[in-house]
Amino acid sequence: MTDLLHQLHEHLRQPTPALPGRGETEARWRRLAGITAQNTVVGRLYEAHADAVAITTDLGHPDLVSPGQLWGVWAAEPPTPVLTAARSDEGWTLTGTKPWCSGASMCTHALVTATVAATTAGTGGTPDGSPDGAPQKMVFAVDLSSPGVAPVPDTWQAVGMAASDSGWVAFEQVPATALGTHADYLDRAGFWHGGVGVAACWYGAARAVAAPLLTRATAAGASPILRAHAGAVAAALTAGWALLSSIARAVDADPHNLPLAKAQAFAVRTYIDRLAAEVIDRTGRALGPGPLASDAVHAQRVADLSVYIRQSHAETDEAALPTVIAEDRLSWDDLIGDARDTC
User: Fold this and answer.
1) Share of the chain above pLDDT 90, in %
2) Which alpha helices (H) appear in 114-172, and where do they start and end?
3) For residue 102, what are the CA distances in angstroms to 71, 106, 168, 286?
4) Chain segment 171-205, per-residue pLDDT in tens
5) Record's SUPFAM superfamilies (predicted)?
6) What is d(CA 298, CA 286) in angstroms, rounded to the nearest whole number?
7) 180 - beta bridge partners?
């Protein structure tokens, strides 16, 4: 973990990449991909920190993230466990357990979603005018050095992404700063731009997994089968970066278009998820078990990427894309372009 944190802080000492939609989105995603290509876990943690900078800026707190800090974004909302927020005269506090907190014992701060306690809602504590007693989720900033914050042991058993330390974190009356409602967090074009940023990380990790295959394919005596797999992988990676580059330009041209940003995110994440799976499969089929058994770095990259891409919801996200097109009254041409001959 010491080496991982050293690598991470080396990147954090560099200027934070420009926020998405400000004219340099492609450069932002290239940097995320490049860092993840070096180390998948470092890239995953760095992406969350960079996303925290974007989120806090969008929510009206552009100076909240300070140099020397490492922020996580802990927004998973499964049915259980539940993290609850309560407000008193002294301010907001969080109590309960938050699952799947990447960097659980490494981050200095985090953006955390929590459910507002019914007693708070019943006293007018919900900030968006929802009915008293209705479940309400909000987004909070938390200093993780506060008393009452404790990572829960043995809640992250993954082999891939093991070093990301993505277990549960327990909170016991921990002071927190409210930044907005869950809707404020979700109903932003930036939320979906951030989702594409994660796909850029998947792409970078896939390039690293493919590197041994691409190197072998250009060596003298490489078999036709190996070269065929390498050619297919190279074509897929070329298309993947072309897609990310194209969407980056579209984001910069229309940064506040929420419906289009949502559709683009589902499309890009679906494609890069399947691209990464193809890279893993073809690299293994072409090179056999040797690199997985004898090259620790390559084997870890394959294991890490296999877990990381499961942040995608696979066919569920694929099924969501037509729904987004219909409900947000987009046309397919808005997303995939109009290639019909109009002459």
Assistant:
1) 91
2) 118-122
3) 10, 9, 9, 33
4) 999 999 999 999 999 999 999 999 999 999 999 99
5) Acyl-CoA dehydrogenase NM domain-like
6) 14
7) 139
Query: Which of helix, strand or coil describes residue 299?
Result: helix
DSSP string, 49-105: HHHHHHHHHHTT-TT-S-TT--EEEE----SSS-EEEEEETTEEEEEEEE---TTTT
pLDDT digits (tens, 9 = 90+) for 76-105: 999 999 999 999 999 999 999 999 999 999
Q: How far apart are CA 101 and CA 151, in angstroms?
A: 9
Query: Furthest-apart CA pair in the chain: how many Å?
Result: 75
Please choose, from the candidates 334, 340, 339, 341, the residue with its C-alpha nearest in 3D space to the C-alpha of residue 247: 334
Query: pTM for this structure?
Result: 0.94
List, as one string, the DSSP characters of 212-275.
HHHHHHTSTT--HHHHHHHHHHHHHHHHHHHHHHHHHHHHHHSTT-HHHHHHHHHHHHHHHHHH
Place of tokens 């050095």: 145
| Count of other CB atoms within 10 angstroms of residue 247 | 24
| Dist. CA 208–CA 23, nearest whole Å | 27
Radius of gyration of the chain (CA): 21
